[in-house]
Amino acid sequence: MDVLEIIDSIEDLVEGAKPAFFSNKVAVGREEILELLSDLRLKLPDDIKQATWIKGERERILNEARMDADKVINDAKVELGRLLSEESVLIEAKKQAAQIIQAATEKSVQITMGSIEYTDKILNGTQENLNKVIDTLNDNRRQLAEMASEIKRNNQ
């Protein structure tokens, strides 16, 4: 019989007892009540030990669950921080890469424009020199033509 059954038996015994004449008091068998109380006294320590163990086990499981939950939360926070840090590094790297590409593009345009201007200057100088040579050639040809005309006139 467990503790609750013993208590139920005591209740049944008291409820089934005959009331004393004009009183709330009842008469119960002394031996029956003492035997039930003795059984209760013997059972109670085991049940209390079991209840205490269950309570302790419950607390241990709850604490373990809390610690596990805290660890999961902390791990999630660390991971979130790492991901945010990686994302911010990635964003900063992309921003710097865009700036480097922009600067390289601008420098490339400057170098190309400088090359074009330099080449145009060289070609212009060459063209001026060629124009002078052509002018000289034209003068020489004209002088040769004049000489040829003079020789023809003198020979006629």
Question: Would you kindly provide a written description of the structure presented here, covering whatever features stand out?
Answer:
The protein has 156 residues and is mostly helical. It has helices spanning 3-16, 30-154; strands spanning 18-19, 26-27. The chain contains 2 helices and 2 strands. It has a two-stranded antiparallel ribbon. The longest helix has 125 residues, at 30-154. The mean pLDDT is 88.
Defining traits:
156 residues, mainly alpha, two-stranded antiparallel sheet, 2 helices, 3% strand, rod-shaped
Beta-strand residue percentage: under 5%
Percent of residues in helices comes to over 70%
Number of helices: 2
Radius of gyration: 59 Å
Derived structural class: mainly alpha
- Oligomeric category: single chain
Largest sheet: 2 strands, antiparallel
**What's the SSE pattern?**
HEEH
The global form is rod-shaped
Low-confidence stretches: none
Q: First CA to last CA: what distance? A: 165 Å
| Strands, count | 2
Mean pLDDT: 88
Order of neighbouring strands in the sheet with most strands? 1-2
